[in-house]
Amino acid sequence: MAFSFDSTQVEGGEFDLIPTGRFNFIIEECVEKTTKDTGNVMISFKFKIITGMTEGRVIYENFVVGHPQYGDAARRKLKAICEACDYLTFHDTKELEGKVLNAKITHAFDKNKGDYVAKISDFKAFNFGIDDQVTQAHTKSSTQSRPTTHTKPAQQPKEIEDDVPF
Question: Which of 158, 133, 164 is nearest to 68 (CA)?
């Protein structure tokens, strides 16, 4: 049986960018993989926001810890995640799943995608005292429109270098 699809029968479209700010996350998935091109070891994360007006939104991030040139930066990010979760040593990436932490979302232009993408960084311990700490432009109303993937954020984000594998 052939697959058929009618896009006029599907509601919605592209997701809005997650606003810039600090959010509480749970690590929903953490998987060790290898990159397709070079075979370098990569840790692939799926972070899910667990509080506030963006609860349920997801961000994916890959850290190519085995890359000869960029691996040190990726390992420093992985260390920051482990310290934020108070889980300093692991032998299987699945051990990080279910851990909670707080992190900062920023935006950068991805030349490969031709659009702005959310980036996660500045990992801290889970913060019980916040729902979300988003930029002032987004705190006026939870119903206020957020920038779409085709709208430039208020701040001019830095450009992503397309040769950086993490």
Answer: 164
